[in-house]
Amino acid sequence: MKPSTCRLLWRAALLLPLLSACTKPSYRADRLEEAVRDICLREYKFAAVGKLAGKTLYASIAPQNIVGADLGIDRKTVERLYDTLLTVTRVALSTNAKVDYLIVKAKDTNTGVTLTLLRYVPDIKWYFYMRISRADFENRGVLEIDDAETNQDASTWHDVTLPEFSARLAASRLQQKITYNPLVSIFVRVHRVRGAFDGGVVTLSLDKYQPVGGLSVGKSAPEALPSDELLRRNVLEVMDDILKKYDRDKVIHRVRVVEDGGRAVLDYSREELFEAWRKLPKKKSLFPTE
Predict the structure, then answer these.
(1) What is the 8-class DSSP label of residue 31?
(2) Structural domain contains residue 284
(3) CA–CA separation, 137 vs 238, rounded Å?
(4) For 120-265, where are the alpha helices, taking DSSP H only?
(5) Which one, out of 7, 140, 173, 247, has a CA that is 20 to 30 A from the CA of 164?
(6) Burial class of 224 by CB neighbour count within 10 A (0 to 12, 13 to 18, 19+)
(7) Does the pLDDT of residue 17 top 90, yes or no?
(8) How many domains are there within the chain?
(9) pLDDT per residue over 246-273, tens digit each?
């Protein structure tokens, strides 16, 4: 998916606070799932399934032709994702329920691939009240693409936590930095990046990691490959930013980057990561990642 398409989807929620200015909630806590379904059907003419899991509001639309004949994202699918994101944001900002996270899912009818959008509700409010810039707001949205083998059934939908959101956001941003820039993708060949949080550790898993020039090395190796150093710089940049924005309570103690075989490529404590990023020269990169 192109960056411009992602930006279009993230901007879907920007005007929603204007729709929820009334003091009385429009949607009761016990009717959020029904509200998502009814709005999508009544106003946008397509079926959607809603589910509230703790403080996370989900919406899944019927299978779509996500990839068009020109190998780009199908415009109709983009519009439906836009409308669904608009719907869950509208509901979340107009209810007496506590909703912190919004998740929208769509599955491709041909490949079985699932596209997931994840948003942190306070980010939407902070943008509306001009506490963050548009560019910052767009950087705070998670975009995930999972293959057909990944179970995306509603039974797996769970309440997202802030550390989990942070891990998934880090993976999403790293994925975009690698795949959206052809120069970077040549040097750091990664099929997919996945983020998880467990026991105080954020783990970023690189699927089919194949750095150019040989095997990757850890941070303590005397001579790292250019591809390793490029990966390290981007991991440090992303995690430094995310930890400062979302982990003020210092729940995340460690950040690990592992290959799909389980071998650690990078491994930093929280303090080591901040120090490593501080020591990196901040000159303009030969391979810009944004």
Answers:
(1) G
(2) no
(3) 15
(4) 121-128, 134-139, 162-179, 182-187, 226-246
(5) 7
(6) middle
(7) no
(8) 2
(9) 999 999 999 999 988 788 989 999 999 9
